[in-house]
Sequence to fold (204 residues):
Amino acid sequence: MLLLVDNKTLRVLGRIDHSLLKKFLHDDVKIEENSDYFFIDYSTIDFNLSYTFDLFSFSDTINIGCTITISKVYDSFGNFLTEGIPQGFKTICYLTFFPKVPQSFRNLPILKGWEINNYSISLINSKDISSNEIANILEDLLILIYDDFKNISSSTVNRISKRELIKHITDKYHIRDSNEIISIMTRKGLIREDENNKIEFFRK
Fold:
C-alpha cells in the first residue's frame, strides 16, 4: 500500500480510442512516438500544465525509470485547458513519456469514455512518498542497478565509485535525491561505502 497522500496521485483510466479524438477535441491531432492521449479520472487537486511525475503505480507495484509529463489537457467538452487539470475535473490528457512509453500504458484498455476499470494506473511524484515507502522499493532498484553494472563490467567486481552510482541513478532512473537514496540503501544494509568512496553491492 502506498504511504502517500491520495490526492497527490492522478489516475489514468485508459487510452482514448483514436477514432474519437477528432470528435472530442474538434481538431486533427498528431501523436508523437513517446506520447499518447488518455482518459484521466476526476482530479482531487489542481495539476499545472507541464507537471511531471517520476513514478507510477500499477497492480500495487511502484515503477521507476520513466518521467511522465502533462503536455496537453482537455475537458470533457473538448476545450483546451491552458492552466492544466483543475480540481474536480475529469479530463483527456496528452501525456509525454521519457525515455519511452512503458508497456503498462500501451496495455491499458482502449476506451470510449471515462470508464472505471481494474487496469488503471496511478501517477505519482516521488517527493510525495514517505521515506519508508521509498525504502521498500529500494531492493528492486538495487537489483536493477546491480544488473546494469554487472552487464557493462568486464569483470565480476561488485564495486563502483559513489560518483558513478549517483550519476547512474539520476540519469537512468530519474531519482532526484540520489544521495538520500544511497543513504537509505546503506542503512538497510543493501550497500556499503568504503574509505575510498567505492560502493559495494550486497545481493539479497
Summary: The longest strand covers residues 67-74.
